[in-house]
Design goal:
The protein is built from 15 helices and no strands. It has 358 residues and is mostly helical.
Length: 358
């Protein structure tokens, strides 16, 4: 083995070690990093409003105070509705259990099965496992528990938001002091482009997810669905997970509606409307608004979901795709890393087109 091969081998080993060490650090420091990542999303979402207040000559500390008050009010209102909906879902689970048993008995009667055949059919469908509260509510509980942990770190998140918003106003000044004018202009231009792209992605992703959650919750409310606010919140969260999230988000309210109503048409129409909303916002509006930032390799999306779930649990799965999208936004703004952005993409020609423009 020559020196060139040795160097390649050492680089591979070093890369694998660094990747493994990074995963270990991310997992061990999750209690610090999850609130920090949440704070980044919140800060970027509120940055346009923050900049607007600064332009109106409102002092920075007062502008940040107003934003913190808005965040606290929104979090408290959402928290009350979510906790109420989750408790109501747990309290009424017995009713859905009885309804499911009734449906099972109707199927047995219609099939005219013997007692032994009915027992075998019952066991093959694993109805007993399905009817356990822990099994049915495990996913929802995981999400709510994860966000309860985030709300438990609410003060830490607010603390991070204060400093991140403050950084937005001071970073250009520090760049101008650190570099020559020509170099500072280039660095400032690149930072402005990155911040603008990241802000656009985060803001529109949150807005579109919120619109989808509100419209879906409104549809469920108009159709008389139980726990419409809880399902609307779940749909809002699951929209951050491509494809799989949409299936999960629609499945829970649809199943509960089929168990809730005696007729099949009400839940069926509601489900169709939810699917239409998901497709219109997720497959038509969102690609037009976010463009290349959604152009990620399906394999990369799958790996990011698995890694996010392994490192940070349910919250990690929700945050993983936005984080990967932001990483791609950052690296495609540097000539030295544009090739990596191309490898991360599903449609290579889009990034190549941007590369020639830059």
């Amino acid at each position: 083995m020559n020196s060139g091969d040795n160097n390649k081998f050492l680089n591979i080993v070093a890369g694998l070690f660094l990747a493994g060490f990074s995963v270990y650090v991310l997992k061990e420091l999750s209690s610090i990093l999850i609130p920090f990542v949440m704070a980044i999303f919140i800060a970027f979402a509120f940055q346009p409003f923050y900049n607007l207040m600064l332009k109106k000559k409102i002092p920075s500390f007062l502008a940040i105070t107003v934003i913190l008050l808005i965040i606290i009010i929104i979090a408290n209102i959402a928290g009350v509705f979510i906790v109420t909906g989750a408790n109501s879902f747990a309290d009424n689970f017995k009713l859905y259990e009885e309804k499911l048993i009734g449906i099972f008995n109707s199927v047995i009667i219609s099939l005219d099965l013997s007692a032994e055949e009915a027992s075998n059919f019952y066991n093959s469908l694993k109805i007993s496992n399905l009817l356990k509260n822990e099994s049915v509510t495990n996913f929802i509980t995981g999400i709510l528990t994860g966000f309860a942990g985030v709300f438990g770190d609410f003060i830490l998140i607010l603390f991070y938001v204060i400093f991140i918003l403050s950084e937005f106003t001071s970073i250009k000044e520090r760049v101008s002091r650190a570099f020559s004018k020509e170099k500072a202009d280039k660095v400032s231009f690149t930072l402005d482009k990155i911040f603008e792209d990241v802000r656009t992605y985060i803001t529109w992703k949150i807005i579109l997810s919120l619109i989808l959650g509100v419209l879906s919750g409104l549809v469920l409310f108009l159709f008389g669905s139980d726990f419409y606010f809880l399902w609307g919140f779940l749909i809002f969260l699951m929209h951050f997970i491509p494809s799989i999230g949409a299936l999960i988000a629609i499945a829970f309210p649809s199943i509960t509606m089929f168990l809730q109503f005696d007729n099949i048409f009400t839940p069926l129409i509601a489900t169709i409307i939810l699917i239409v909303l998901q497709n219109v916002i997720g497959n038509i509006i969102e690609p037009k608004v976010l463009g290349d930032n959604l152009n990620l390799s399906p394999l990369l999306l799958l790996l990011s979901l698995f890694m996010g779930g392994y490192i940070w649990g349910i919250i990690g799965m929700i945050l993983s795709v936005p984080i990967v999208s932001i990483i791609k936004i950052i690296i495609k703004n540097f000539d030295s890393s544009k090739n990596i952005a191309i490898l991360m993409s599903y449609k290579e020609e889009i990034i190549i087109e941007n590369q020639t423009k830059n």
